[in-house]
Amino acid sequence: MDVQVYGCNHVVIEVDDAKKAVEFYSDVFNLTMLRGGEGAAWCQLGAHQFLAIFEVDTLQPDRAKHFGLMVRDEAQIQAVRDKLINKYKLTMEPHFRCDFRDPWGNRIQVVDLSDESLVWLLPYQEVQKAGIRFA
Hints:
CATH topology: 2,3-Dihydroxybiphenyl 1,2-Dioxygenase, domain 1
Mean pLDDT: 84
Largest sheet: 4 strands, mixed
CATH superfamily: 2,3-Dihydroxybiphenyl 1,2-Dioxygenase, domain 1
Number of helices: 3
Low-confidence stretches: none
Structural class: alpha/beta
Order of helices and strands: EHEEEEHEEH
CATH architecture: Roll
Strand content: 25-35%
Number of strands: 7
Number of domains: 1
């Protein structure tokens, strides 16, 4: 049997305060809380994925591991950058449009729908509604 992968179901991050992490990700990315409690939370990422936030006693940030979140366009990337820099006083990773470490050391990269390398997204209704066309 050949295995067929349909996408990524979820991403997990570690924090030392799940409640504050939910507030941060809800504020910066307008994520909807699915459920949470007892040091864990789940937030919806798009139509088919979720972000799992787990509270741990000791944070151990990685050097290169990261995940990417996709927003609509350059204006939304700039809005995220502005909030991260001005409200949360975070610094951007050099050489990327919007690559940063959250307050717990998790590295996140923000990209947009116009990235032509994302042709695999064509089946998603969100992309079709946005009118994104790939040459």
